[in-house]
UniProtKB/TrEMBL annotation:
SUPFAM superfamilies documented for this protein: PLP-dependent transferases
Site (Participates in the substrate recognition with KAPA and in a stacking interaction with the adenine ring of SAM): Y16
Catalytic activity: (8S)-8-amino-7-oxononanoate + S-adenosyl-L-methionine = S-adenosyl-4-methylsulfanyl-2-oxobutanoate + (7R,8S)-7,8-diammoniononanoate
Highest taxon in the source lineage: Bacteria
Entry protein name: Adenosylmethionine-8-amino-7-oxononanoate aminotransferase
Keyword list, A-Z: Aminotransferase, Biotin biosynthesis, Cytoplasm, Pyridoxal phosphate, S-adenosyl-L-methionine, Transferase
Gene name of this polypeptide: bioA
Native organism taxonomy: Bacteria, Bacillati, Actinomycetota, Actinomycetes, Propionibacteriales
First-listed, main subcellular location of the protein, grouped into a coarse class: cytoplasm
GO MF term (any one): adenosylmethionine-8-amino-7-oxononanoate transaminase activity
Length: 430
């Protein structure tokens, strides 16, 4: 075994892994564009297309010259400064750009360390908002089954409590209100949506005096199963929030910045949230950074309530390096015809994964924007499937019953075709 991998197995605890029975690891020697250079275990290297965009964030690829230069320029000035009592241009310019590209009512930006923290902040903000309005009893969130919002405590409480990754913590988490998962499919079945709407309406009515906000991933539930649902369901949730005085919090950490075919997935439904959380692709994958945006009503109500402030403030809030590269990443995205790019990738994935339809053990094949999914009829053998796809020059990280891809936007048609073929062939040999 490579000495570094031996030390890794002894020392490092990887995501959702066992220390006593560690998962197989592959040593990265370098990365450029859409490709990873991996140690092949025999003293050489093997190249693979990163079909995961490093967990959905590396949309412009590795070693992007524009993003590299943004970091170099900023580090020559200063790399970090506390955000309490001090500010700086990268944070100001980033906030300005985020307000420009997000739904119009969102006017105020809170910068966070990670996507999970942005959900924490959003929930705290919603609770403070209801207290400021005199609704101290509104301490619960309304959400739907199948969601995933992060690994810290408040986000865990709004993740699916049964089939999610946090069922071990049941009893220790805040008890939220869960409605049924929206009917499957972007186009949706009108009768199924109507029945779902009636159930959600009854639930909201029954718990109206307890609920502070609705929290959902719009259009596409990510780590909860790459599950797509109709924009009409979002419109129903917006109406319920307005009817009962809830806030609507949209988690666009995975779906933001063009991934589903619109800049933000809420645009599919033509609705605006009261609070929006973004992350992952925000910095083009270079550094950890997220943001929570809210309306003026929310910001001013909380600011005039008890405490007179949003009660949160991370040490690394507004890190200048992260803000500088995030601004460069957004501008790089806007300078490109990103809608055409995402549409091209969507078409390529649909074509490339078409061969998986009808294969033994395949339950469903679906594409939403630049997201391609092959859902199996049972759990994936992750090490075996990962290796099978890697032999075909593509890196994926399956989970649950899914083999899926969220490729970088800079992927060529040939690379998208290779991703589709590699997944299809690997699934076919299981």
């Amino acid at each position: 075994m490579n000495e570094l991998l031996r030390q890794d197995a002894e020392l490092l605890w990887h995501p959702y892994s066992s220390m006593s029975e560690p998962s197989p690891m592959r040593l990265v020697q370098g990365a450029d564009g859409v490709r990873l250079r991996l140690d092949d275990g025999a003293g050489g290297t093997v190249e693979a297309i990163d079909a995961m965009s490093s967990w959905w964030c590396m949309i412009h690829g590795y070693r992007n010259p524009v993003l590299d230069e943004a970091l170099r320029t900023q580090i020559d000035s200063f790399s970090h400064v506390m955000f309490g009592g001090l500010t700086h241009e990268p944070a100001i310019r980033l906030a300005e750009r985020l307000v420009e590209i997000t739904p119009a009512p969102l006017r105020h930006v809170f910068l966070c360390d990670s996507g999970s923290v942005s959900i924490e902040v959003a929930i705290k903000l919603a609770l403070q908002y209801q207290v400021a309005r005199g609704h101290q009893g509104r301490t619960r969130m309304l959400t739907v089954r199948g969601g995933y919002h992060g690994d810290t405590f408040a986000p865990m409480s709004v993740c699916d409590p049964v089939n999610g990754m946090h069922s071990l913590f049941t009893g220790a988490l805040a008890q939220q209100v869960f409605g049924p998962r929206p009917p499957a499919g972007y186009d949706g079945d009108e009768a199924a949506i109507a029945a779902w709407a009636a159930e959600m309406s009854e639930l909201a009515e029954r718990h109206a005096t307890e609920i502070a906000a609705i929290v959902v991933e719009p259009i596409l539930q990510g780590a909860g199963g790459m599950y797509a649902y109709s924009p009409g369901c979002l419109r129903i949730l917006r109406e319920l929030a307005d009817r009962h005085g809830f806030l609507l919090i949209l988690d666009e950490i995975a779906t933001g910045f063009g991934r589903t075919g619109t800049m933000f997935a809420s645009e599919h439904a033509g609705i605006d949230p009261d609070i929006l959380c973004v992350g992952k692709a925000l910095t083009g994958g270079y550094l950890s950074l997220a943001a929570m945006l809210c309306t003026t009503d929310v910001a001013h109500t909380v600011s005039s309530g008890p405490g007179g402030a949003l009660m949160h403030g991370p040490t690394f809030m507004g890190n200048p390096l992260a803000c500088a590269v995030a601004l460069a990443s957004i501008d790089l995205l806007l300078a490109d015809d990103w809608r055409t790019t995402v549409g091209r990738i969507s078409t390529g994935l649909s074509k490339g994964l078409a061969g998986a339809v009808g294969l033994s053990g395949v339950r469903d094949v679906r594409v939403v924007g630049a997201v391609g999914v092959v859902q199996l009829d049972g759990p994936v053998d992750v090490p075996r499937m990962t290796e099978a796809v890697l032999r075909r020059g593509v890196w994926v990280r399956p989970f649950r019953d899914l083999v899926y891809t969220m490729p970088p936007y800079i992927s060529t048609d040939e690379e998208i075709a290779q991703i589709g073929l590699a997944i299809t062939e690997a699934v076919g040999e299981r």
